[in-house]
Amino acid sequence: xxxxxxxxxxxxxxxxxxxxxxxxxxxxxxxxxxxxxxxxxxxxxxxxxxxxxxxxxxxxxxxxxxxxxxxxxxxxxxxxxxxxxxxxxxxxxxxxx
Length: 97
What we know:
Blueprint: E1 26-30, H1 35-46, E2 50-55, H2 58-71, E3 81-84, H3 90-96
């Protein structure tokens, strides 16, 4: 089995926060309480995007949302929030939707 590097790139990934193209939009980040998901949630928040962090860990989720709210500017307030949900269980996923 060989690995081939994908040619697909996100041309605007580095400039996401440099314009207001996505400002006040809302993104849902499942698994946003740790690891890559947390990094994505924080990056979206810096780009002035409202973030809904979804995860199992209430304490971590609320702490992340609080840090994102504190980091947002007073001139550009955002409505970040945390939703507890274990996406591996269909019943939780349906109630979240």
